[in-house]
## 1
Amino acid sequence: MGLLGIKIPEAYGGSGLDMSAYAIAVEEAARVDGSLALTIASHNGLGTGHILAVGTEAQKQKYLTRASSGEWLAAWALTEPGSGSDSAGLRTTAVRDGEDWVLTGSKMFITQGSVGGFCVVLARTNFEVPAQRGITAFVVDTKSPGYSASKHLKKLGCRSSDTVELTLEQVRVPDSERLGEVDQGFLDTMRILDGGRVSIAAMALGLGRGALEMALDYAKAREAFGKPIAEFQAIQWMLADAQTELDAAELLVRRAAWLADSGRRFTTEASMAKLFASEVATRVCNNSLQIHGGYGYTREFDVERHLRDAKLCEIGEGTSQVQRMVISKHLLRG
Ligand SMILES: Cc1cc2nc3c(=O)[nH]c(=O)nc-3n(C[C@H](O)[C@H](O)[C@H](O)COP(=O)(O)OP(=O)(O)OC[C@H]3O[C@@H](n4cnc5c(N)ncnc54)[C@H](O)[C@@H]3O)c2cc1C
């Protein structure tokens, strides 16, 4: 359906659509399947998004054409076993050796890390400067000697999305596969995450919408005390709150996407959208499961899967605490 190249320009085989269209596509996928939405979001928002933002023409020709056709899924590796929220604290190193760089270290929770065709890896290239000014990005062929992925991590939700720990043992990467300027990778990373956060917010919105639809259907069909449970005010209020909060989340997602499409800064708005939409999604999925009663707690209905998938949106691409840090920092700086 072209979803893997939705934001990639037509020149590289993609659909060339904007952030607003992309967010709607992720939302619609998440309405039914959080893992599929996460695969689409991480592929477009992170791995290919980074190449689209700062890649050379040769890198775009090589990677984006295969990414948009679906031949190669993209992975993106920032997080490490010892650094997640404090992402600049990463310890993977890249050392220059002639025309190559040699990458050594480990990465954690990498989506598509074992199934991706390539992985954008963030590594420390300069220890003489503050961490944020000494990080560089590289595109690594996942078949390179020294690149190895653990078994798929067992997770609470999004279980059909590939998540692995990576080990990089003296992985040789030619300088032509360096992505962006030397030592500037962290600044680029922050920009990439702004877009990524819009897509995780859209994923949360879709999961919440899907769960509310299930709750509505169930509430109309299930009877208790001689009438459909939809006729009880306690149920009606849960449904009303869910619809109201999801609409509010949708407006935040649309605003952040629209700002991105208008070429304006949208860091804070992306954080607000992700913070609000993810917490709303968890609440809506939880209440929708409650409306399903005992059946909601079983695998007979999809609502429990939506709840498990939604929780990720409060953690991935910056936890809710990190989003609050971003928003308050902006507020206090004026
Ligand atoms: C399924 C899944 C897929 C992922 N995919 C990717 C991927 O493709 N690529 C990638 O690079 N990463 C990926 N991640 C990693 C994800 O971005 C991190 O897990 C996340 O940023 C949190 O980092 P952490 O797990 O190290 O938690 P920590 O940073 O250790 O945080 C632990 C807790 O402390 C809180 N905390 C930390 N610092 C502060 C502070 N200053 N103030 C208040 N509270 C704080 C956090 O909010 C959290 O509640 C993925 C994670 C998951 C679960």
## 2
Amino acid sequence: MFDNIRNWRLRRIVARHPIAESLWRDALQRCTAARRLGASDQATLRVLATQFLERKSLEPTKGLHLDDAGRVLLAAHACVPILKLGLDWYDGWHSVIVYPDAFIPRRTKTDEAGVVHQTNSMMAGEAWGRGPVILSWADVLNTGKKPGHNVVIHEMAHKLDMLNGDANGFPPLHRRMDRRVWSRVFSSAWDSLKSEQRNGADLPIDPYALESPAEFFAVASEQFFEDPATLRQHLPEVYRQLEQFYRQHPF
Ligand SMILES: [Zn+2]
């Protein structure tokens, strides 16, 4: 019953505010993770992106102008992680604030509200526990220039992580997943990357992952969608856990 009402509302939203074909095709061209999907998943992504634009408020600031193409691109990136989970996984927050470029956050310390950030000074993105996602538009446009990087997916992964409390690299797992396996896989990957790093080796993942378990999950999520082959090759067990969590098989 609820599903029917829900589906009906959904179809109405999509019918009223469809994303124009040319804008959607343009977004697919520019979003590696979306381009990799099959036709039916791309169609689902388009519905989710439509709903995302309907439910969330994209708020350009500091003189940035976000045109329709930019909005659709941002929504496409943002909906990749929840393609098989549903937009409900982004409940509890409303705004995406977009700066023209890397920004310096107004606050100076990490507080108890579960604030997570990417660097201590200039930041490409930030996600607050029950508050907004903040993004640098220049970094969104740079997505994919460095393989494996996607600031939108990174911040959305923090949002998923924070669904069950602080960002700690432990999002709410599905019923058939095993928390102990998740912990074991992520901590043993962490340990071996740390020792590779001490030996001066090039890491197969952005070293920023080793800032904290929360960053490990967010950076691994970026790579899972942007450069799945590399993640699967070097961190196959992490890859498998993310496959189960996101319910996607990008490689
Ligand atoms: Zn982060």
## 3
Amino acid sequence: MKLKIIGSNSKGNSYLLENDNEALLIECGVKLPVIKKAINYNLSKILGCIVTHEHQDHCVSIKEVMKAGVDVYASKGTLDILNCSGHRANVISSKTPFSVGGFKVLPFDAKHDAAEPLGFLINHIETGNVLFITDSYYCPYIFDNLNNIIVEANFSEKIIDSKMEKGSIAPFLRDRILKSHMSLETCKKLLKSNDLSKVNNIVLIHLSDGNSDETQFVKEVKELTCKNVYAANAGMTIDFDKRPF
Ligand SMILES: [Zn+2]
Ligand SMILES: [Zn+2]
């Protein structure tokens, strides 16, 4: 199984878990032609698209994706706000597992300024357990037997604090960021509180343009975990099989 990064920032998020036979789209926050290109124009290979929440950088093409014949899965709060209905719109809820082809998905509630945001624990025989969490300033859960992790590291508290001192960030904006997105510091706490012994890859996603430092983030998480650590960039493909332990 490969993880393809189609987009990963506030301009658009979309990720593809893909093997020779099937694919799961995570988020559709980029235009449909960009998704089509990423799957080599074989859209029928995408068995479903799971969406975390209603912000456009995560779901801008949700209606086009459904029109193209792909089932989407999101919370009731998300689908209602986006005015999405019909047989392609599947309501999912926190702590209720469902399957999309060979992918088993367990949604859980995320902490974000959205109607009913979710994170996902995805299981596939090839990848093992994949944690996907974005747009969540905090995660109260511990996950068992993780094999791969895709986690937001949006900003650094240090960068935000130094911007505050210089007056180059407004207090309301600082508060909004702190109460909606995951900092590198929180990301590291989350990683530390989980058993990483079977983890192969850690992919840092949704890095903010102005408030992050990709090289430093990767370095710090590598030092903390001794794993394969990546900062997600569009066009990147990562081997996402679980390690043969
Ligand atoms: Zn976002
Ligand atoms: Zn958001």
## 4
Amino acid sequence: MIRNNKIIGILFCSAVLLFGICYGVQKRREYVPNVIVGAGLSGVVMAERIANEQGQKVLIIERRNHVGGNVYDYKDENGITVQKYGIHAFHTNNEDVWKYLSQYTEWHDYKHQALAETSKGLVNFPVNLNTIDQLFDVEFAQDFIKRLTDKFGFGQKISVSDLQNDADNVLQKGANILFEELFKNYTIKQWGMKSEDVDPSVIARVPIYLTREDAYFTDKYQGIPAQGYTAMIKKMLDNPLIEVRLNTDWRDVRDNLKYDKLFFSGSADAFFDYKFGKLPYRSLTFEIKEFPKEYYQPRAQVNHGNAPRMTRSIEHKYLLDEKSPVTTVSFEYPEAYNGKNERYYPINRPENAALYKKYMQEAEKLPNVYFFGRLGDYKYYNMDQAVARALELYHKVFK
Ligand SMILES: Cc1cc2nc3c(=O)[nH]c(=O)nc-3n(C[C@H](O)[C@H](O)[C@H](O)COP(=O)(O)OP(=O)(O)OC[C@H]3O[C@@H](n4cnc5c(N)ncnc54)[C@H](O)[C@@H]3O)c2cc1C
């Protein structure tokens, strides 16, 4: 009898202790109405709207040691604004997005231009009629251009892969040379797969323009934030209702936080502890170097399709037209995402879309968790699309 009472007593005390511990842990959880994972453009737009329009508190959790995600830039010791994660030229036809960001920055009038290294030297890129003059002998170039403009019309844009399948032998021959010189190896290096396995939309993203204009983009609004992207992002975050916690991975704090809404702009597989497998991404290594001369190359961007590993070199002083006797250049080397480097490009393949869909079916069971952004939506967004998507989600949730 005494023994039984003892056991009951021990069980009772253990239950009380367990309850106390659970209650304590629960009590110690920090409450914030809105938590955002990722201080990239997507997360920052969401935070800005919630704080400024809803007047609600927001906590941003960011793994890196800075805000801005991939649009982050900084001034180096020579006063050159360096875009740490590769060139970011802003371009959009979306007036709402342009007006929205313009509340937080003035724009330096920058229209992106690029060149590509070929067996015939540097040529204009994306391909236009000038590129054809630079790459082919006069006779072939004239014939090629005439056939192109007769068939598709001056001013139109077409994809190199469509042209390679054209019935006209001259168009086919010209397209095959363009493909070998400018697209094939670039695509193989960038995506780590054979060019025929790359989703056609990826190649079509860099079209052939049947014009004489050397602009990289044709959008109505183009520019670079006059003080840089980081300055713009900091202004957007300048509200006492917004707190940013840098150097913090969501995984390490998720059990300590309570929230009404969670906006997740990280990768969905990581959110669900990779339970269905890893979503593949392409990554890049950026090698940033200083050169003791005023200019290194004739434009901000030069593509190196046929170099062994490198795809692009970017000379940063062009972007804000900064003057200096020295110059800073970054060289880009694509590689697979391996868990230690950064996720940059979702890979557009049916099996990856299917895996992502499985994660989103899990996400549907969590009504107060929203996935968005380049990683959260597993979609190649340009900056304007990332902003538009964040604004759209904000309206859906709060209006
Ligand atoms: C090399 C390159 C060049 C580009 N050039 C252009 C261009 O010229 N023009 C253009 O319009 N667009 C360009 N883009 C696209 C542009 O970078 C994106 O549209 C934009 O950065 C998307 O913002 P985001 O917030 O969705 O993603 P990101 O910038 O990737 O931000 C996501 C943030 O979430 C953080 N995060 C992820 N997981 C966690 C976690 N578990 N815990 C905490 N934090 C986490 C990350 O550290 C990151 O800061 C380029 C992209 C790349 C990669």
